[in-house]
Amino acid sequence: MANKVKNTGTQSAGTAASKGGTTKDTGSGEQDVHVTHQWVRDMMDNLEKHTETKMAALNASIDAKLARLDSVPTFLQLVVVVGGAAVGAVTLVLAIVAYGGDRFDGGSQFGSFTVEQTLRTRQLSDENTRQIGEIGKRVDMLLDIMGRRIEEKPR
């Protein structure tokens, strides 16, 4: 098998010769390259080794990324966590409002109790004042009656 290859300076004509092929300069910048089956097999083996190395590195990189993906939560897990946090927050707010409402109601009841007690005390005070006034009138009437009797009694 003979091929003519133009030497561009980036290829080494000696590469084919060093791997089992032969080269012959034709004088016009082209080289006549004779490639043997062994040289092709060697090149294919080198390519396979290089490809296997690159594939192993790529597989290792993919495995590392997949391992990291295993720790990422799924959409359902995210929904459950966010939903649970929302329910917890709403429950906490309702508990605080209920506690505050209970405290406020207790204060309001105490305030209304105080107002009711003040009204009742005022009514009792008014009733006591009225009754004391009546007692005072009766005492005056009794004193008047006793004073008349004292005046009528001879000494």
What does this structure look like?
The chain has 155 residues and is mostly helical. The protein is built from 3 helices and 3 strands, in the order βαββαα. A 3-stranded antiparallel sheet has the order 1-3-2. The protein starts with a strand and ends with a helix.
**Low-confidence runs of at least 5 consecutive residues:** 4-13
Termini gap: 177 Å
For the largest sheet, list the strands in their spatial order: 1-3-2
Mean pLDDT: 78
State the helix count.
Answer: 3
Could you tell me the number of beta strands? 3
Structural class: mainly alpha
- Form type: rod-shaped
Query: Strand content of the residues, in percent?
Result: 5-15%
Give a quick precis of the structure.
The protein contains 3 helices and 3 strands; from the N terminus they run βαββαα.
